[in-house]
Design brief:
Layout: E1 6-10, H1 17-28, H2 31-36, E2 38-42, H3 48-58, E3 61-64, H4 81-85, E4 89-94, H5 97-102, H6 107-119, E5 123-128, H7 132-136, H8 140-151, E6 163-167, H9 181-198, E7 208-211, H10 219-223, E8 230-233, H11 240-249
Parallel strand pairs: 1-2, 1-8, 2-3, 3-4, 4-5, 5-6, 6-7, 7-8
Phosphoenolpyruvate is lined by residues 10, 168, 173-174, 211-214, 232-236.
């Protein structure tokens, strides 16, 4: 691990006020853990007010699953960074494969959003990853190199302090298939080298997360790898005991 371990929950379009309460109180009882591991929860936007009320006593940070690159105006259904920041959002996911695949988010959108997130003073969690077909065709590193170059073009020199990269193989998200620790480390080392070329200052300090069917029984072996600084967790972040076990493994 290079930096403070970081574990981010992506609840996707799941959860409830009850889950916010249950997760906040479960994590609130784990202060020794949340002092060591930075824990972030990205609930659906409508649950952010409830989460924001409890985040500081729970020792966690609030995150959003996406944000508009626009500051305001005629963008029906979108949420700007300033609207999200009113509810304590300090981390924003960008380029999640579900948004790229199902909502047409392009590399150019990811780049614009990443810039806007950092300019607003939030941390951008840039998600990259290859499909099963791209892996079979041995294009994994080419695809990820392109995604990184596009997302991180023209960032300010000091962007490292406001950036996280999550490697999420598309074939591993929500499928129960997980990259082996060796496969994940191989890609993470590649990402680390690329970041040094793309970000001028302190690229070594950028946390690199693995995501894709991380569970309580495989988290420790993934997080033990040198360039894996934590995880982005979907399904297993909806059950407090499982999520806490994953955070403990970091
Ligand atoms: C995700 O959606 O970012 C994710 C990693 O999901 P899961 O853990 O369910 O594979």
């Amino acid at each position: 691990m290079h930096v403070q371990p970081l574990v981010i929950a992506n609840w996707k379009m799941n959860g409830s006020r009850e889950l916010v309460n249950a997760m906040s109180s479960a994590l609130g009882n784990q202060s020794a853990l949340t002092e060591q591991v930075q824990v972030v929860i990205c609930p659906p936007a409508t649950l952010l007010p409830a989460l924001a009320e409890q985040a500081s006593t729970a020792g966690i940070a609030c995150g959003a699953q996406t944000a508009s690159a626009h500051a305001g105006g005629a963008h029906t259904g979108e949420l700007s960074l300033s609207l999200l920041q009113e509810f304590g959002v300090s981390y924003v996911l960008v380029g999640h494969s579900e948004r790229r695949q199902h909502y047409g988010e392009t590399d150019a959108d990811v780049a614009a959003k990443t810039k806007a997130i950092i300019a607003a003073g939030c941390t951008a969690v840039v998600c990259v990853g290859e499909t099963a077909q791209q892996r079979e065709q041995e294009q994994t590193k080419a695809v990820i190199g392109e995604q990184l170059a596009a997302a991180l073009a023209d960032l300010p020199d000091n962007a490292a302090t406001k950036l996280v990269v999550a490697y999420e193989p598309v074939w591993a998200i929500g499928t129960g298939l997980t990259a082996s620790p060796e496969q994940a480390q191989d890609v993470h080392a590649f990402i680390r080298e690329n970041l040094k070329k793309l970000i001028k200052t302190d690229a070594d300090l950028i946390p690199l997360l693995y995501g894709g069917s991380v569970k309580s029984d495989n988290a420790a072996s993934l997080f033990a790898e040198q360039d894996i600084d934590g995880g982005l967790i979907g399904g297993a972040s909806l059950v407090a005991d499982d999520f806490i076990a994953i955070c403990s493994a970091a």
